[in-house]
Write a structure and sequence with these properties.
Elements (H helix, E strand, L loop, with lengths): L9 E9 L7 E10 H4 L3 H16 L18 E3 L11 H6 L9 H26 L5 H29 L2 E2 L16 E2 L1 H18 L3 H4 L7 H14 L3 H12 L28 E5 L40 E3 L1 H5 L6 H5 L1 E2 L43 E2 L21 E5 H14 L3 H16 L11 H12 L5 H7 L3 H8 L18 H7 L8
Antiparallel strand pairs: 1-2, 3-7, 4-5, 6-10, 8-9
């Protein structure tokens, strides 16, 4: 008989060594495999299991074939010139909805397994918080804090699962000594959403604020409320979503930062990467060499193949060109919008004087614009090597990265405070409070332009969608808002040239991994 491993209560014990910089950055070394009940009889054991949740959550970003899978398949992105180097079962298929985007994709299966592994560990922490016999008030408080983190993270993983796959199984902890389960029925999505709301409602009560926990690497009340806003919007509970979003907006932990600071790494892990606009990030520690991430290179075009432009960190470092912003994305920005200059590289500098194309009439230090590349390129792909791009994922030399490396150690920003404004605008608009929705969108625009000259007098969903793209584009949130508002197929067909020929109605849901379908005997999502 085949067993379903997502139910197995066996853990890897890990040794924890706190970094000298911050206790949210951890080195992990696998030590042994033992039954869960032997791990969870100490606070250190409970904490070790919780840290494995964060290790799992960040792990997709460590795989170059799926590191930016959340950016895939929307109207804001198209294939970069070298997306062909990615397996079709990975981001290439996820962005184009091609035949590799299927139930037999090993990379879709990897994401599924990672999420359920994390949920299983969240279950164990929650279970331990209810059965562990604390000896002091301090131990009791620590257990409740661990429980709050586990509830918020379990909700995070379930929310992504239910949005992408809809009907998914609920991971149920086994009793000590019980054999592995042989069944894992799919729960209706309504049941999953009920569990998410229950988890987040309790987490809000247990978690500290971002100011109190001091780190972007741990869940806070702000994260729990933001996830509640997302969840309520998915369910059409707009008044509740508006209330949850407003709770984040009114949280004194957060403040808008200068546009050119938000995505930097100055000052290290306790500097800009811990700034007060960030709600939650996956933490990467440069001291742990084998725990790097692969996002920095994905949006960098192959600029260094163009004569006259050298590969330098200032120009973008090593380029992989897996993604490019779509032409539609660039049409959304107006003159004077500070986000355009702060969050993008629009042109490359000629810095290799011996290789500058003579016919261009240009000199060292000038920009490679005004048809410069057309003097050299001979194919459509080559003519795209100097495409403008987003720099939200770029990493400089702060953590020792060089022009030879594709990996890096900057944190992965998962949620920013500005997302609460976008979610709040959507929720208030749908709840009938257009005035409040307009106020929230204008707050973002005033930060972007530096004044109120470009404020809207009123907004609708199209305005909100456009502002969401300008503010949060390429951060991994677009697919969800398109799906929620029934716009995914329409927008992708109009603006993603690589996906337009392939996208079908079935693609609003991901295929359940076939290995799980076969093991559990469940029904595959329609169309796969």
């Amino acid at each position: 008989m085949k067993y379903i491993k997502l139910y197995t209560p066996v853990l890897v014990i890990i040794a924890l060594m706190f970094s000298a910089c911050t206790d949210s950055i951890l080195e992990r070394e696998e030590k042994d495999v033992v039954p869960a009940d032997r791990v969870l009889n100490t606070l250190a054991g409970v904490e070790a299991v919780l840290f494995q949740v964060y290790q799992a959550g960040r792990s997709p970003h460590q795989n170059p074939d799926i590191s930016l899978f959340k950016q895939c398949g929307t109207d804001l992105v198209r294939n970069g010139t070298h997306m062909v180097d990615v397996p079709e079962a990975g981001m290439r298929g996820m962005n184009t909805y091609s035949s590799g985007f299927s139930a037999v994709s090993n990379l879709i299966n990897d994401i599924w397994d990672v999420y359920y592994g994390a949920i299983s560990n969240c279950n164990l922490v929650i279970q331990a918080s209810e059965t562990f016999e604390a000896n002091t008030d301090q131990e009791e408080a620590q257990l409740l804090a661990f429980k709050g983190e586990a509830l918020a993270m379990r909700a995070y993983f379930y929310l992504d699962l239910v949005r992408r796959w809809e009907n998914v199984p609920i991971s149920v902890p086994l009793e000590p000594g019980a054999p592995p389960a042989t069944e894992a029925p799919l729960a209706p999505k309504e049941v999953i959403y009920d569990l998410i709301i229950s988890d987040l409602t309790e987490a809000v009560q247990l978690l500290p604020t971002r100011i109190e926990n001091g780190s972007v690497g741990k869940p806070s009340k702000g994260l729990a409320n933001l996830l509640l806003a997302e969840t309520y919007l998915d369910l059409g509970m707009n008044a509740e979503a508006a209330q949850a979003a407003d709770a984040v907006i009114n949280d004194a932990s957060y403040a808008f930062q200068p546009l050119d600071m938000i995505f930097g790494q100055e000052g290290g892990k306790l500097g800009v990467e811990n700034n007060n606009e960030i709600i939650f990030s996956w933490i990467f520690d440069p001291a742990v060499i084998d725990q790097s991430q692969y996002t920095s290179v994905m949006y960098t075009p192959l600029y260094d193949r163009v004569p006259g432009i050298a590969r330098t960190m200032a120009q973008g470092g090593r380029p992989w060109s897996r993604f490019s912003p779509s032409e539609y994305y660039w049409t959304l920005f107006e003159e004077g919008d500070g986000r355009l200059e702060a969050w993008h590289k629009l042109a490359w500098i000629l810095d290799d004087p011996d290789e500058i194309i003579p016919e261009s009439g240009k000199s060292e230090g000038e920009l490679a614009v005004d048809g410069y590349i057309d003097l050299w390129c001979s194919t459509d792909l080559e003519c795209r090597y100097l495409e403008p791009t987003t720099t939200k994922h770029w990493e400089g030399e702060e953590y020792g990265r060089t022009t030879a490396e594709g990996e890096g150690y900057r944190n992965i920003i998962v949620y920013r405070w500005s997302q609460a404004y976008i979610l709040g605008a959507e929720a208030h608009f749908k709840a009938g409070n257009v005035t409040r929705a307009t106020e929230l969108i204008n707050a973002l625009r005033e930060r972007a332009y530096g004044n109120s000259d470009h404020n809207f007098t009123s907004v609708d969903m199209n305005v909100i969608m456009d502002e969401q793209a300008r503010e949060l584009g390429h951060e991994g949130h677009r697919w969800y808002i398109l799906k929620r508002n029934g716009m995914l197929m329409e927008r992708v067909m109009a603006h993603n040239p690589d996906a337009a020929p392939n996208i079908q109605s079935k693609h609003v849901r991901w295929p359940i991994p076939q290995t799980f379908v076969d093991l559990a005997g469940v029904e595959q999502n329609e169309g796969y």
